[in-house]
């Protein structure tokens, strides 16, 4: 399957997560919402790991890989905490979700350029500029 398929699934899952956080915020403590999120993520990860292990499909795990995976856990936990806090404080989904996601997209994209020396083309600069303008227009409505 193409990486675009997986990217589309991830985008749909992020959108669904934002909607579910918006619905849950204020209806349970933020800490409990984060705990439930973490428990589900742990269960999915454990099931996937055990299935790979049962198939003998496990590759080696380097220290860098483990440290990076821990970074993912910390980062997504911070996203969850931030979204619960924003929505509990009354942030509108139609502004908060695009601002968080587009700003994250811009930062991650720039990391690709500056850390991994990914190519910069005029179309890339235009797309990044439009994303930045999109954040501005969404926030200022």
Structural account:
By secondary structure, the protein is an all-alpha fold. It has 2 domains: 1-91, no CATH class; 92-141. 82% of the residues lie in helices and 0% in strands. Helix 1 (3-24) packs across helix 3 (63-88), helix 2 (30-54) packs antiparallel against helix 3 and helix 4 (93-116) packs antiparallel against helix 5.
In short:
This protein has 141 residues and is mainly alpha-helical.
State the total count of DSSP E strands.
0
What value does the Rg take, in angstroms? 18 Å
**Structural class designation:** mainly alpha
Number of helices: 5
Roughly how many Å apart are the termini? 38 Å
Give the amount of beta strand, in percent.
under 5%
H/E element order: HHHHH
Helix content: over 70%
Tell the overall outline.
globular
Low-confidence runs of at least 5 consecutive residues? none
Largest sheet: none
How many structural domains are formed by the residues? 2
Average pLDDT confidence is 96
Secondary structure layout:
Blueprint: H1 3-24, H2 30-54, H3 63-88, H4 93-116, H5 122-140
């Amino acid at each position: 399957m193409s990486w675009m398929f997986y990217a589309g699934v991830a985008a749909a899952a992020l959108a669904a997560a934002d909607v579910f956080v918006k619905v849950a915020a204020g209806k349970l403590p933020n800490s409990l919402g984060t705990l439930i999120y973490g428990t589900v993520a742990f269960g999915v990860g454990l099931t996937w790991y055990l299935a790979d292990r049962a198939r003998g499909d496990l590759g080696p795990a380097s220290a860098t890989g483990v440290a990076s995976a821990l970074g993912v856990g910390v980062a997504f936990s911070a996203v969850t905490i931030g979204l619960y806090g924003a929505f509990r404080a009354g942030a509108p989904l139609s502004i908060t979700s695009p601002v968080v996601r587009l700003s994250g997209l811009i930062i991650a994209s720039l990391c690709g350029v500056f850390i991994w020396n990914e190519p910069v083309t005029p179309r890339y600069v235009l797309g990044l500029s439009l994303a930045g303008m999109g954040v501005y227009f969404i926030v200022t409505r």
